Amino acid sequence: MWPVVLHGDEIILRPARLRDQRKWAQVRSENKEWLTPWEATLPHVPAGSPASEFVSKRPSFFAMVGALNREARAGRSYSFLIWHGKNLIGQITMGGVIYGALRGAHIGYWIDRNYANRGFTTQSVVLVTEFGFAQLGLHRIEINLRPENGASRRVAEKAGYTFEGERKAYLHIDGGWRDHLCFVKYNHLIQ
Prior knowledge:
Number of helices: 5
Strand order of the largest sheet: 1-2-3-4-5-6-8-7
CATH topology: Aminopeptidase
CATH superfamily: Gcn5-related N-acetyltransferase (GNAT)
Structural class: alpha+beta
Radius of gyration: 16 Å
Number of domains: 1
């Protein structure tokens, strides 16, 4: 099933390829200040603790592409670069995919500030949600976002997600454990 390419009206979502490294690094570098307040960070873990083997520095682009492809082939996570024409404008991931009595996942994303507030992120969320429901048979998909991120909240709401509740100290973001708001969309075609 992997790789998968999703086509929207104005965007294409496709898996990262090794040859995307230069464009990805350029967009990430140009948007570092813009993205830092919303980026996941790695918490400090004491050396020698059981968790220390799972917490390390961020991988290189090449290691990231390999890991993303392994996770997608295993059915655990699906990550796509967002393209508008020849411009790489962001990335969206549906991760934490669970199959069983709970058939769910969560979505996270980032967008180049030059393409923000133009509907591309919402289109990406809609495409990935449709993929999760139609292709994977998921029942529930979440978007967890920081309360002060009004733009991300608007994306979730425009994509048909509804507010479910608060999650205290949910994710390590920008150097600390941050509260999040949980938005959910259900696949009403699955019983």
